[in-house]
Amino acid sequence: MKTAEPDDRLDGIFHALSNRTRRALLDELASGPARVTELARPHGMSVNAISKHLFVLENAGLIRREKEGTVQLCKLNAEPMANAEEWIRRYKAFWNSQIDRLADFVEERGED
Amino acid sequence: MKTAEPDDRLDGIFHALSNRTRRALLDELASGPARVTELARPHGMSVNAISKHLFVLENAGLIRREKEGTVQLCKLNAEPMANAEEWIRRYKAFWNSQIDRLADFVEERGED
DNA sequence: CTACTTGTCAACCGATTGGTTGACAGATTG
DNA sequence: CAATCTGTCAACCAATCGGTTGACAAGTAG
């Protein structure tokens, strides 16, 4: 089962999200399941490289792979992102107050 | 002048957040500015290591450092996290629907 | 002046990343 | 059967990561 501590999970999730190729893969999977070769095509990289990226995403729990006849279907599993979002959200009050201060500043000088 | 592209920014932010020591540093800074040595103490690491982590956070725009007399004050700058949260949030509808489907599934078969 | 504190810089280290190529296994098709 | 398409595995590579130690500059205190 799942022994990963919350910290380990967050490490994996944020690490998975820290690469733009992987973020792009998630974007593509958000519009529906896809095969590995299909995902590789627009990235100008070998299928191997994409396969490794998919493993990183899978280890982070962000996708699932299912053998569908001859091809491998990858499906988005966005739920673990909730953990990341939740972690980030605790800073919301902090950054809102900063944005407010910036807004005040901008307003003060008139907008240009 | 180099204006980091959104992708570069997100790379840096997510990478900064992908390490638990750095996340802990942000947590500590959320309760107020602190000095480097002060931040290093509870982590059982050298000041040098913490200093490097702080540089990663600073490059991601998540903290600012200010020379205050003899010591270096680090302050949280949470606003860039909004970018990360915003990126993640686009998957919210997706994972909500998955949770719904999972609930249906569990309900359907009773518990196994 | 010397001594100490604070933090960075520089070099080094092993482990990990992100990519490559090549071999290969499984399923489909000729 | 052979050929092809699928994707993974294994080895390799340069670059980066996360930590160390040691030297050192700047500021403070005796």
Please write out the topology.
Two copies of one chain form a homodimer.
Chain A (H helix, E strand, L loop, with lengths): L5 H12 L2 H11 L3 E2 H5 L6 H13 L3 E6 L2 E6 L4 H9 L2 H17 L4
Antiparallel strand pairs in A: 1-3, 2-3
Helix pairs in contact in A: 1-4
The first copy, chain A, binds a DNA duplex (30 and 30 nucleotides) through helix 4.
Describe this entry's structure for a reader.
2 copies of one chain form a homodimer. By secondary structure, the first copy, chain A, is α+β, with helices and mostly antiparallel strands. Chain A is built from 6 helices and 3 strands; from the N terminus they run ααβααββαα. The first copy, chain A, has a 3-stranded antiparallel sheet with strand order 1-3-2. The longest helix of chain A has 17 residues, at 92-108. The radius of gyration of chain A is 19 Å and the shape is elongated. The model of chain A has no long low-confidence stretch (mean pLDDT 86). The A-B interface holds A 7, 10-11, 14-15, 17-20, 23, 26, 30, 76-79, 81-82, 84-85, 87-92, 94-95, 98-99 and B 7, 10-11, 14-15, 17-20, 23, 26, 30, 76-79, 81-82, 84-85, 87-92, 94-95, 98-99. The structure holds a DNA duplex (30 and 30 nucleotides).
